[in-house]
Amino acid sequence: MVGISGFTGLLFLPLVPLAPLPPPDLWPWLLASFSIHLIYQLALTKALEMGALTFIYPIARGMGPTLVAIFSYLFLEGEMSLIEVGAVIILAIGIFISTSTGKATTGGTARENGFFFALLTGAMIASYTIVDGLAVRVAPEPLTYIIWSSLAFAPIFLTYSVLHHGPQILKAAGKGWRTSMTAGIIAQGGYAIALYAYSIGSLGEVAAIRETSILFALLIGAWWLKEPISRRRWLAVPLIAFGAILLKLV
């Protein structure tokens, strides 16, 4: 996480001339986003330390679009219809089905293997989606928020990490710089694309389509990390796809 959110966040530095400084009315949004993202990073790290990717990821990512869709329907007029909320829920059900029940990993219960932190991660995903999605619309231009939200968060996360773990955390993160740089570019670039999508589309719809990434997580967990994938999880794949397709048809 230090490599992904700290070191690679600084890669936005050369892009600063492309976007103006955030105006004062954007600062409260940035502060709220930083606080939520910090809790998200810590919760996700703890969850992945305790449980299997194919257990943690579906819970966290399934909660996000569901909560965003409900929030959009209730509080953002014209963002989502009731039918679209239903499509998101179908997609989310498929995501939840893709996880296991009872034991997250061999030798422990779901609670012992990160279930609480997976739920907290999902709540933070919904929170930062709403805050960042609305903030990028407030910004003078989307690029301003995309660049400054990522760049300014990097020193905040690095400072927290050093205060909590000591300066040796930077040295430890530096040893795996190739992996963290690759993951960081993917993570930072992917979220930058999501932020731009939030500026031109419905929060609930974009958040839901974004979470079809669970299909890739299942494949990565099965083929790369060699985690067991049950038939029940594979049956969730067409349900997730159906929910995503339905969302675009209604």
Automatic annotation (TrEMBL):
<dbReference type="GO" id="GO:0016020">
    <property type="term" value="C:membrane"/>
</dbReference>
<feature type="transmembrane region" description="Helical">
    <location>
        <begin position="143"/>
        <end position="163"/>
    </location>
</feature>
<keyword id="KW-1133">Transmembrane helix</keyword>
<feature type="domain" description="EamA">
    <location>
        <begin position="114"/>
        <end position="247"/>
    </location>
</feature>
<keyword id="KW-0812">Transmembrane</keyword>
<feature type="transmembrane region" description="Helical">
    <location>
        <begin position="28"/>
        <end position="48"/>
    </location>
</feature>
<feature type="transmembrane region" description="Helical">
    <location>
        <begin position="82"/>
        <end position="102"/>
    </location>
</feature>
<feature type="transmembrane region" description="Helical">
    <location>
        <begin position="183"/>
        <end position="201"/>
    </location>
</feature>
<dbReference type="Pfam" id="PF00892">
    <property type="entry name" value="EamA"/>
</dbReference>
<keyword id="KW-0472">Membrane</keyword>
<dbReference type="InterPro" id="IPR000620">
    <property type="entry name" value="EamA_dom"/>
</dbReference>
<feature type="transmembrane region" description="Helical">
    <location>
        <begin position="207"/>
        <end position="225"/>
    </location>
</feature>
<protein>
    <submittedName>
        <fullName>Uncharacterized membrane protein</fullName>
    </submittedName>
</protein>
<dbReference type="InterPro" id="IPR037185">
    <property type="entry name" value="EmrE-like"/>
</dbReference>
<feature type="transmembrane region" description="Helical">
    <location>
        <begin position="114"/>
        <end position="131"/>
    </location>
</feature>
<feature type="transmembrane region" description="Helical">
    <location>
        <begin position="55"/>
        <end position="76"/>
    </location>
</feature>
